[in-house]
Amino acid sequence: MKSNINKRGLKLDDGKLHEEDHIEYSRRRFIKSFGLAGGIGFMLGGLPISVASLTKWSMPPILENSDRILLMIRLKGGNDGLNTIIPLGQLSAYHNARPDLGFQDSEMIQLNDSIAMSPHMADLKRLWDEGMMKVVQGVGYPEQNLSHFRSTDIWSSASDSNEFVNSGWIGRYVEDVFPDFIENTPSYPPAIQIGGGSSLLFTGQQVDKLGFEAFSAEQISEFAASGQVHSLDNLPPCSYGDQLKYVRIMTNSTYKFVDSLKIAYDLGPDSSLPYSNGDFSQALKIVAKLIKGGLKTKIYVVEIDGFDTHANQIPTHEQLWKEVSSGINNFYKDFEGTEFEDKVLSVTFSEFGRRVEQNDGPGSDHGAASVMLAFGKCLEGNGTIGTYPSLTELDDHDNLVFNIDFRHVYSTLFTEWLCLEDSHSDAILFKDFGESLDFGFSCQQVSAVKERPQSRYSHHASYGLGDVYINYSIPKDTMVMVELVSMTGQSILLDRPMNKKAGTYSIPVKQNQRNLMPGAYIYRIRITGAEFSGKLILN
After folding, report:
1. Do residues 344 and 376 make contact, with C-beta atoms less than 8 angstroms apart?
2. Cα separation of 181 and 343, whole Å?
3. In the chain, where are the structural domains located?
4. Of 80, 291, 376, 476, which is least surrounded by CB within 10 A?
5. What CATH number has the domain spanning 458-538?
């Protein structure tokens, strides 16, 4: 199978091209982490302010009585699947390709007759032995791209490799499951990400930032404990301080789910388990606490960085997998004896695998197919899904050939764990991936699906013809008022309260108010029983 890959910067030998790929990757991650690539993120006096636009855009889950939770674990950088799960039937080829990088047979942790596990993953052996771990083998996608940021976007958007989609699979899931976002506003975030900042994952087709994103476990812990995204303490006693206080108040008020987060954090018992002090383990500890505290969030995302192991892979991979294994082991121990013991499913993912042959690092360069690992009592038995790729029959670029499309895994998670109808899963993932993979769980006992409303509210700012436009649609007749709010807190009426017919409207801001100062503004659209807000910039 031929892979149409981007050849620039795939290994350290590429020198400047490899460095440029990482610089571009880091630049995009930095911009997104502060919400500057979209949504309602902006800078004020050099300070990054991120305002989530979730408030009025969701409803209670469409499937009643579904208390299942999905945790996605990102192994950032491209995890070496071949040194994670080793194919016992191909040991000769494995050792030939990796004379320095490969594990000795005596070091490997044998799981069954066909696969072994890295010796650095010993803490996961308990989960395997107790039937709480499955290995998905040969995961990838057609025409594999080996650029970090592009392949990350492909996994996040669930697009084909030759398509550029500006929404994420989790964002589209939230929009699909929460369509009546006006009349049934939730008090909890439908999805939470800890680590890595803003992400395409949570971006919807209609609305940006359909979830709560925290830079670290410490940040979300402070937020949940205090009930504030940004502290109002110790602000400078001047005009700038007043402006900053106003923006922070608005930011805090945007997160309407603050009460549910704080309640869950307070109710969730503190863990006595020996979680490490690493960011990854601390993130899992916080997720477990929120779940045990009763938070109704359906999807969590955590990540651990460092898997781009071009050089010195052996000590780096060892440290990473000891952290991951210990964290996951403690995470599931945290639920023992609770009502959540069989309600939490965890799945790992990474933007790509590594090449079969070691480099001179010694390490491994960007590759193609890899493994995904699933954990949880809900799996009802250990085992493998799919076939391990041949280590000798490679693609035209000497990479492993995938046999399971990663979106087939997503589809199975949707239909058999989160209990979406097949047609809705197909719509979110843009195609039908066929029969579900056999993870050991199903949705046969889930209650009936509610009828979905056919129309929805929407709003956004647009730019053109020398003006800035506030655009909004209303699916039914209602009272509407539109105003701008400056960073100093001044309110400017753009559209006085009046009854409007169902339809789409556009307000030219500069034409409406000719004396507005350049800068960032927040617009508010108030209708009967609800309020929306968004950001715009006047030049």
Report:
1. yes
2. 26
3. 12-429, 458-538
4. 476
5. 2.60.40.3080
